[in-house]
Design a protein that fits this description.
The protein is mostly helical and 173 residues long. It is built from 8 helices and no strands.
Length: 173
């Protein structure tokens, strides 16, 4: 907004749409980012962690300064997809997709008729579900989410912001 102003605004013009946008941003910060991180560690990073010897595992976990986060990752690496925190993460993501479906019933975008910060905030997490091969779990229950994601992938900003950002190691994982 500061750099491009009105010519490329990501804030909805309508006050109600702008108000609808804000919870998507908070939700990404508070719930979706931790949930997708938990799921990613349980599926992508856990096998490599388990290949480490006990001392290397302990050292890796000790590098996590936040005790709560360290405890979460300990559970994820120990119990994998059976860890309660992973099950809760999947439930959080299920609620996200259901709420996206509801929001997209009446609009082409999450916070109204125009692309906004809500869409930019959710896109990397929808893409992670896609990359993990999990977005298809909602194919029947959330068809509008699939339409939305297909349209988002066609936007000029998708490749430079999402795909070009990924490293070859990210793609391989």
């Amino acid at each position: 907004e500061d750099r491009f102003g009105d010519s490329a605004s990501l804030l909805p013009d309508d006050p109600l749409d702008r108000a609808a946008m804000r919870p998507w941003l908070k939700r990404v910060d508070d719930a979706i980012h931790p949930a997708i991180g938990t799921l990613t560690h349980a599926t992508v990073y856990r096998p490599g962690f388990l290949k480490l010897d006990e001392d290397a595992r302990a050292a890796r976990l000790a590098k996590i300064p936040d005790a709560s986060r360290r405890e979460r990752f300990t559970a994820v690496y120990r119990d994998g997809l059976d860890a309660p925190i992973v099950i809760n993460a999947v439930k959080t993501l299920d609620r996200l997709v259901a709420d996206m479906q509801s929001a997209l019933e009446d609009n082409d975008f999450l916070a109204g008729p125009a692309y906004s910060l809500a869409d930019t905030a959710v896109t990397p997490y929808a893409n992670r579900l896609f990359d993990l091969g999990l977005l298809g779990l909602w194919a029947v229950s959330a068809p509008r989410v699939f339409d939305w994601f297909g349209a988002i992938r066609q936007r000029a900003n998708f490749v430079p912001a999402i795909l070009d950002y990924m490293t070859d190691a990210d793609r391989a994982a």
